[in-house]
Design a protein that fits this description.
Layout (H helix, E strand, L loop, with lengths): L3 E5 L7 H5 L1 H8 L3 E5 L5 H17 L16 H19 L5 E6 L3 H12 L6 E5 L4 H18 L12 E4 L12 H14 L8 H13 L8 E3 L16
């Protein structure tokens, strides 16, 4: 089984380190064929370009499986997080419960899947998504839509998640996707030194920066919060010049 990866130009002024390190390096080591799409904000265009790559593979006798990006695609990725929510519930109960889950919110599939999974299980723990790519108003609408799409995919009738359930913050968004800020750098360094936990500048570092900001504002005073680490450590090695 071969792999084709389309890399989108989402971050301005990308260094040569970013273009040769991190996930790009891993893709090359694993033998993937890398493609580039020039407009990182054009999800529909990016998906159309992936479709053209798939067409060329079909013409060469292959059977491609496409993982699309756009908000109108099937929410298959969210199903994994529905199951993850069911998996984490016994762990939450074992520690006597928590008050909130904080997680990255980009495609919205992580937040939508977790939220739907918890509510299906009758658990009302709030989930707060930290925006990594777009403003809170845009992201809130996307989460609501992705929850509805996932519920449809599961064949559910009725409203399992309410609008009030969707919590999103862009307090740590900064100038945009994948761009370093002082708060994000401090959060990544602080977490590494205090916990031996490595975060990435595009997703989890931004979530921790948002969590720290909320904690400093007393939003989480006397509360038990679960930071949901979605991975991403290899991306850290694309930013050595930022530290």
């Amino acid at each position: 089984m071969s792999c084709n990866i389309q890399l989108e130009e989402r971050v301005p002024d990308v260094s040569d380190l970013r273009r040769t390190n991190g996930y790009v390096l891993l893709g090359r080591l694993l033998g993937a064929t890398l493609h580039s799409y020039p407009d990182g904000e054009d999800e529909a265009g990016a998906d159309a370009a992936i479709g053209r790559i798939a067409d060329s593979l079909r013409n060469a006798g292959h059977k491609p499986y496409i993982i699309p990006l756009g908000a109108d695609s099937k929410t298959l990725g969210a199903l994994g997080y529905v199951r993850a929510a069911l998996e984490v519930l016994p762990q939450i109960e074992a520690v006597g419960g928590i008050d909130e889950i904080v997680v990255a919110s980009g495609s919205a599939l992580t937040q939508a899947g977790l939220l739907l999974g918890l509510r299906l299980a009758g658990d009302m723990t709030p989930i707060r998504g930290v925006c990594v790519r777009r403003k809170a108003t845009q992201q809130t609408a996307r989460v609501i839509q992705r929850v509805a799409d996932t519920a449809t995919l599961l064949g559910l009738d009725g409203q399992t998640v309410t609008i009030e359930d969707v919590r999103v913050t862009d307090a740590a968004l900064g100038p945009g996707y994948g761009q370093m800020t002082a708060a994000k750098r401090a959060a990544i360094e602080r977490t590494a030194r205090a916990e031996g936990l490595f975060l990435d500048p595009a997703y989890t570092g931004k979530v921790m920066a948002g969590l720290i900001k909320l904690a400093e504002a007393d939003a989480f005073s006397e509360r038990r919060v679960l930071f949901w680490h979605t991975g991403g450590q290899p991306a850290l090695f694309g930013y050595p010049d930022q530290f």
